[in-house]
Design brief:
The chain is an alpha+beta fold. It contains ten helices and 13 strands.
Length: about 300
């Protein structure tokens, strides 16, 4: 079990909590541990497998603090900030700053991290066992990596994990494949070139916008609302998002929405009305018409074709 304490040595007692009552970002099928009291809120979603572990960590501290995290193993660990900042103290005592849009790989089992006053932060970690790494058979060494821009396909695979629609054994199989795909994407990725005319803060803001959009495919947040949430305006959000991701906000939202719909149609038995609701369509005819316009067939016909009926 992950152990977290304040730099003073006072432990933050993480206790199992009812996952069904948790309203924020989560890993489907994970176990939730939390510590909530005056001055801080910490939650850890942990999905444990013998070959890998997936965690989603969320922190809020009313005052600036330094915490010490002790991992339960010394496996190679890939970390991606999704919101706020991840500020880690490396072995040599230097502070490593990761904003949304960056990632690194570490094998440091015990580390300190600094958290700013009143700021919430969320980051995901994937732990790769030596057995899993050996099974990749890439022929090239897999080791630690200093902070750098995260490849977009790697980020998409992480978002796929966070909105996994499967249950139990199918979910295990899905996660096992996604974890391997993420490791492979890291190994083969080309250097990511970020737009030089945007500041690191603006780039991080666009990655946070991308994360919020990827996890709200049900239409509960509009693009103007997203801009307000990020403290910017609609025009700037649209312009900067396209600079960072090479695609407009709305086309990217529709692309993601339709890919998720196809996954639900092909891999689950959810009725069309439920899929329409999950995708943010207010009526079933509206959902069917939007799908037909994009794919030149109805959702039912697409499901039958993909399943070989």
């Amino acid at each position: 079990m992950i152990r977290i304490s304040l730099s003073s040595g006072e432990p933050l007692h993480l206790k199992p909590s009812p996952n069904r009552k948790f309203t924020g970002l989560r890993i489907p099928g994970s176990i939730l541990y939390s510590s909530d009291r005056a001055g801080h809120s910490v939650s850890l979603h942990i999905y444990q497998h013998r070959l890998y572990t997936i965690t989603l960590r969320q922190f809020y501290f009313a005052k600036a603090v330094q915490i010490i995290t002790a991992e339960p193993d010394n496996w190679l660990r890939l970390e991606i900030p999704l919101s706020g900042k991840l500020s880690v103290i490396s072995r040599d005592g230097n502070e490593i700053q990761l904003d949304p849009g960056a990632y690194h790989l570490s094998d440091q089992p015990v580390f300190a991290s600094n958290h700013s006053e009143g700021e919430s932060s969320i980051y995901a970690s994937l732990h790769f066992s030596p057995e899993l790494i050996a099974g990749i058979g890439s022929g090239q060494p897999v080791g630690t990596r200093p902070p750098g821009p995260v490849p977009k396909d790697l980020l998409e695979m992480l978002y796929d994990i966070l909105k996994c629609p499967f249950q139990e054994s199918l979910r295990d199989f899905y996660y096992a494949n996604k974890v391997r795909e993420i490791l492979f994407a890291h190994l083969v990725s080309l250097p990511v070139v970020l737009p030089g005319e945007l500041s690191p803060e603006q780039i991080a803001q666009m990655y946070e916008a991308d994360r919020i959009m990827a996890n709200n495919l049900d239409g509960k947040i509009t693009i103007p609302e997203l801009a307000r949430k990020l403290g910017t305006n609609f025009v700037t959000l649209k312009k900067n998002y396209e600079k960072v991701f090479g695609i407009g906000l709305f086309p990217r939202l529709m692309q993601r929405k339709m890919e998720h719909i196809k996954l639900l149609l092909e891999k689950t038995d959810k009725p069309l009305k439920e899929i329409a609701d999950l995708s943010g369509y207010q009526t079933l005819p509206g959902f069917i018409n939007a799908f037909r316009k994009r794919f030149k067939m109805t959702p039912n016909d697409w499901r039958k074709e993909r399943r070989g009926f």
